[in-house]
Every structure is written in C-alpha cells, then in structure tokens.
Fold each of these.
Amino acid sequence: MHITQLNRECLLHLFSFLDKNSRKNLAKTCHKLLEVFQDPLLWSLLNFHSPVELKKDNFLLGPALKHLSICWYSERVKVCNIEDWMKNSFQKEFCKRHENTVSDFLLDVCNRCPNLLSLTLSGCGHVTDDCILQLLKSCPNLKSLKLENCVQITDHTLEAVTLHGASLRTLHVDFCRNVTQAGLERVREKCPSVMLRAERSANMIPDSKPGKKLMLEKASRKLVEI
C-alpha cells in the first residue's frame, strides 16, 4: 500500500511523529500530503530550539495551537543576555540580528493563536514586558507561563499577570534578574491560586543605570590594579 492510500486520520497520526523539517519535506512530494501538512489539527504543539527556526516556513500558526515553547540553550544566549556595555562590536552585531525575531513571532502568535494554553520562553533576552502584556491580553485561556533567563522581563510583567492572567495557574520567572521580591509578593497577594516560582530571580543583582554600571566597572578595574 502506498502512503497516499491511507486515510486522513492515519496520515495526521503519521505526521505527528515527524519533526517540522520532515513534515515539510514530506509535504513537498504530493498535493495530498501537502493538505495534511496544512491541517491545523497537526499544529497544536510547537517547540523551537533557536530564534532562527522561527523564520523557517516549516510550520503553521493558527487557532489550534495550544502549547508553544522557545528554548534557546547555547553560549550565544549568554551573549544576548549580558548588558550592551559589556559586549564587543561582534557580539553587539550578532544580537542586533536577532533583536526582534522572537518578539515579532510572539506578536504573530497574539494575532493568530487565541487558544494558547501554555508558553515557555528560555534565553529570550530581547522579549519585553510589553510583548508579554499583549500576549496575556490576546490569549485569555493561557494557563501556564514559564520565563527563564529573560533579562528584560521586570515587575511590569508580574503586574500584567495580576490584571490579565485570569486563567493563569502556573507562573515561572526563573533567572529573570530584573524581577523584584516586591513584585513577586504582589502576585502572591493578588493571585493566590497561581503556582509561582522564581528561582534566583529576586536574589540576583538587577540591572542598574548605565552611568552606575560604568562606575562599577571602573571601580572593579581599580581593585584589580591594586
């Protein structure tokens, strides 16, 4: 029996075992398999392992999407998560190329995926509070929000959770150094039903003003010289 002789349910089940690239390659072989690839039921779960993957035309965004994960683990994550004043010109250029990749993708999710239930972001150093605010407003059914090593996330995101996260049951803000203990306490007070985790966040050294950073850098150099 040829694969195209299988019914649609069997083909959808077969596609579900393949990664995004394999699905795309198989869809190129005939119109019937392309129709299966474009079936929204196939795309309820999406996992990405680098911002570059977000630019590939090998997946489908739509109302069927329930679970989304963008986890970027590499040395480059550390580069994008350190302050600009600590980066060399090559590192700054690299970060600039990816500056809006994740944020633009999440805005697309806001517009096209209103039924999202869970979102996990790890190492997404350019994602801002405004982006998370828009997502909370656009995805009212969101139950799980996990943010790890997202350095631009602050107490504004925590405030957005208290205002627009009515369905939220799980909130992680691990290694987000600009989240404060006061912000976490507000979430605990206003959203007692939310399972809150903030590993290392409020205990880490937060970002400070550029002028103060420069002073700290100079002071550190003097100590080294002494």
Note: The longest strand covers residues 67-71.
Amino acid sequence: AGNGAGADMRTEISTAAAFVTRLLRAAGGVGEEQLRCFRECLQEAMREHYKHHWFPLVPSKGSGYRCIRINHKMDPLIGKAAGMIGLSHERLFQLLPSELTLWVDPFEVSYRIGEDGSICVLYESPQAGGKAPKQLESRTSCKEQWRTGRSSPSKSYNMMTVSS
C-alpha cells in the first residue's frame, strides 16, 4: 500500500510494454533503437497513468481505466509513446492489430486480438495473502463483459452475465 504501489506494478507494466513492442518489431520497419525508446516511453506513460489506479487488494478495481485498447482509435498511451519516436497514428494502425485489448491488472496481464478472439495471459503471478480464489473471481469480472459467452460463467454470476 502507500507509495509501494508503484514498485509493485513494475512487472505487469514491463510485461505489457514488452508485448506491444514485440508486436511492433514483428511488423517490421521500426529500428531497434526506436523500439527500445518506444518501450521505455510506454512504460513511463503507463506508470504515470496507473499511479493512483493500482489496487493489489482489489485487482479488478480500475481495470477498465488501465485497459489498453486499439479499436479504430489508437490508445493514447501507445500513441504518446509512438509519437516520441516519430511514428504517426496512421503508421501505428498499419503496424499493430486493428483490434487489440490489453488488460494490465495487479498479478495478471492478458490480451485479446480481435473482438472475439480468445483471451491469452501474458503474465500471471501467484497472489499475495492467500486470497487467490476470491481474487480470481473478481479478476475475471472486468473481462466478463468482453467475453461473448465463450467461458462458462462463474458460480456467483450464474446466468446473469449472458443477458443483455
């Protein structure tokens, strides 16, 4: 708690930034030096953005705020980091998936490419305090709305999540 929160999110942020950087590298046309700078700028932007929105005791809290999203609009954090290395939003749209959602939560970083792709976990940490089952449940809640009935609803939700 307190000001220790910043240090605790380092792994999650570096995992997320490395992932976006890998996507850029795979697309080609961006030099290694630019990629390194992009990754550092993105980590810095994320640290700044998440500073007061990181709740290890309630990992799902603020999940929407921390979610990095490209969906016909460029995520501002990615856009900002790309601007630092002279990449325009147009260029980014050519290099990155047009539909990308990246969830950066305490103890877990996961992503989905495409609006109904499956969710893949990039990083998962054993959770502190031995409260894993309860936290696991709340952790899926932010993603529940993105999933279109792909996973079986957890017990506490029953079939309520399916209605809309």
Note: Residues 9-124 form a domain with the Actin; Chain A, domain 4 fold (CATH 3.90.640.90).
